[in-house]
Amino acid sequence: MTPSGTHAGPHAGRGDASDADDLDVEEALALVRAPRSDRTDRTGRADQADQTGRTGHVPACPAGHEHPHDRATPWPEAREIAARAARRATRRPTVSVALSDALGLVLAAPLDALSDLPSFDTSAMDGWAVAGPGPWQIRDGGVLAGHAPPEPLTDGEAVRIATGARVPTGVTAVLRSEHGRTGPQDRLHATSEMSHGQDIRPRGQECRRGDQLLPTGTLVTPAVLGLAAAAGYDTLTVVPRPRAEVLVLGDELLTEGLPHDGLIRDALGPMLAPWLRALGAEVIAVRRLGDDAKALRRAITTSRADLIVTTGGTAAGPVDHVHPTLDRIGAELLVDGVAVRPGHPMLLARTKADQHLVGLPGNPLAAVSGLLTLAEPLLRALAAHPAPEPYRTPLREAVQGHAHDTRLVPVVLRGERAVPLHYSGPAMLRGIATADALAVVPPGGAAQGAGMELLDLPWDTAGIGVCFT
Question: Do 468 and 279 meet the contact criterion of CB atoms below 8 Å apart?
């Protein structure tokens, strides 16, 4: 699927790294894109206009002029720019949400103990609450969790007690069921050594009222929810999920059925919303705009999202409206092309003080590259998640590299090795559909056994279904 009038070229489906195979029509158009004369690149130098007028043709650079590829942002720098842009955005207000809605969010205030925990002495085991040295006379009845305070015990007495029940006054220990034996006249005898206070959880053992349980910035996991509930919380103050809106561009896209008559199925519309949700975003809309410049401008200027994601239209073809639209609304272009394959013609723009736009290439795997390069670090920073520690895994076989650009290659993990997958061309999803991660291959490639940085796919990490790679 390649929205906005830019279809995959004849080599887009191959998995090797030659320029011919990695440079599809959309990327070629991006390399010759000619901004207006009043626009400069991020280094302050004016772009050179394409004089050919031919879609997809990359002209030779005149002597003394910089090649457009030289203006592409290095891949690591592009990710840092995206994260920094989010940190500089207008601060979003925190929200108070029910525990059931807090999973995967980040605490915006410390979690302080509202009471002692436990709030009274409790039994840690099923057995007998005993007072003084044994043997003990067993008292009628029993002590259950959640019931009224039990009657005090005097030395020489014992009473049945359940795990979690309030320990009666006067009790010196809890004798586990398996460590006690009853005899005639309801006498209880210990069958093993017992110490004072054994199997009693004293009041305040875990915390005292006012203690800080967790600091601001803690990710709310299932265990955090359990702790908050135990501490008496009904709601948590958190950083809200970033809101994302997806704008699907391209008149050639079908939403159902088989491709026909030059029309192709939209692969990005069904893929992007759940992917963004897996990255922690709240997707407020997926809108199909076709190749309508006015509709695109209206959608961007009226969007309530923190992040707008567009598909295709980032090159310089006759219906590629993303750059001209960003020009017209006065957006600030932060990244205009990234030195990565696939996905070179991606972009990042600041459309408002509190809003950004990530323009993804139309080819599916190139769009995935754009998601992980620009959208993921931006969403992570908006949600106040810390950057994860990078890790490396050795390759089971060599991977050919691009001459100048980073490559993102789908891999599966087999034991302690990463195995590169086939079907990794810009227009293909077959490889990424079975991948565990993307390997970050530096320019020039990587030999067998070389340790590669891996970007985990959000659904491949066990836990809460939210992962910031």
Answer: yes
